[in-house]
Structure formats: C-alpha cells, structure tokens
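Sequence decides. Our protein:
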Amino acid sequence: MNFKNFGFDSSVQSALSELENNGRIPHAIILESENKDTALDAAKYLAMYAVCPQSDKPCGTCIHCKKASLMSHPDISYAYPEKKSKTYSIEQIRSITKDAYILPNEANAKVYVFEEADNRLSVIAQNSFLKLLEEPPKNVHFILLCENAQRLLVTILSRCTVVRLNQKAKIDEKSLENAHQIVNGIISSREYDLLIALNVLSDKQISDETLFAVRILLRDGLAISVGGDFLLDGITGKKLASRFTKEQIIQMIELTQSSAIKIKQNININLLTTWLCGEYRRISWQR
C-alpha cells in the first residue's frame, strides 16, 4: 500500500496494511475507531485503493484517486439515513443491493461506505444486508465504520474483516501473558507448546481479550516487517518478523480474528483449539 502524502500515523498504516493481499482488499471491512474522522479518512483511503488502476496504489494522482479524495467518484457511494431518520431503512438496503449488481461506471470496482454502522444499521437492516455480504458481486467492497463493532450482529462480524484504528492497547496483565504464551507457541517448533498455550481460551471471560492481544502482537510483527513501529511489544514483534513472511503474519491475524468470532458462537472449545493449532502450523510451514 502507498501511504505517501496521506498523513496516517504508523499504527493506522500497520492496521490498513493487514488488509492488502496480492493487490486486493477484502470485500467487507469494518473500521472500528473512537475517532470518527480517523475512520472516515481510512475509509476514503481504502475506497481510493479499490478504484485506483495503478500498481502502487492508491497513487493519489490519477483521475480515480482525485475523484475519490473529493468524495465525487461515481463508483464510491456513501450511505446516509434518508430524511430525518437516524437509521438505514430496509428500502435503502434493498436499493443498495440492486445497485451493487450493476457494473461500475468508470473504475473496475465499486465501494459502499456506511458511517456509524453500529448505530445506523438496525437488526432488521443487518439481516437484510447479510445475503449481500455472503454472496457479494465481483469487485464490490463494503466498508462499515463503527465506534464499537461488537454492537453489530455476530453474523455480520463473521463475514467482515474487523480493523481497530488508533485504539489504545489497554490489555490486562493476565490476557497479555496468555497472548505471549500463544504467540511464543506459534513461533516455537514444538506443536505441543502451542496446543498447551491455546488451552487458556477455554476461559471465555478472557478469551476475547486474549485473542485481541494476540492480534496486536502479530500486528507488531507485521509492522516491523514493513519498517513500521510496534504498538505493544517490539521484541516479540522482531521474533515474528524474522520467523515469518508478511503474508504469513497477515493470514495469522485473519485466523485469530475468525477464531474470536467462532468463540462467540459457542463452538466446542476443544475442537476450536485443535483446529486453531493446526491452522497456525499450516501457515507457519508455508513456503
């Protein structure tokens, strides 16, 4: 990703870098931030990335990038509640669904941005939106801005890549200790070390915070691998960066996020930890 002249700090750059995979970004992204301006700036950046035709994108200079920066690109839509309503209506979601299947006007992709999605998307609207997220048209992206992504339905979260922006890593000592054990298990050549470390996830009261800390530690490794700054632990970050490729760390971050969602769905924890151990190992052994 090209961050030149965009003014993002290193933590936001690191978070957004996680999303890039072979010149593409996920079809559905949730940007979680306490700062609405930061979230909107990140959404504009990702929308620009999606429509930019250059290899080093977003270039910031092509006609698509210029229109995107002015929020005037015909293939980038910002959804707002109709009239005086504070929430998106079912009719709006249905209209967006129909529009999503229409080919882009100018670019090779279309983008839909939903501000304050955690407040403006009702349960009914989210359920109506679900099928579109499950079977999205080709080259169509949805970006949901939230202050608290946990207000959204689990079914929505499970179909989106959640990115926390400018969130201070306030993690309790126990969860951080658990996270270090898991990450050290990932780095270790002994599968048993990782399997034992993952047993802490059986305590569902701290599993979410533990997996969040694992994501931050992995993100530190990703940041260091691309020359950025770490958020939580530089030493562990350097170990990750020296042991794994950028692509491997990104896959691990995505895996950790999906595991956090599975735990909320009351999946059998023994099956989850066994599966998770196998998936971390599979990624680790990729060449």
User: Anything to note?
Assistant: Strands lie at 28-32, 76-79, 110-114, 140-146, 161-164.
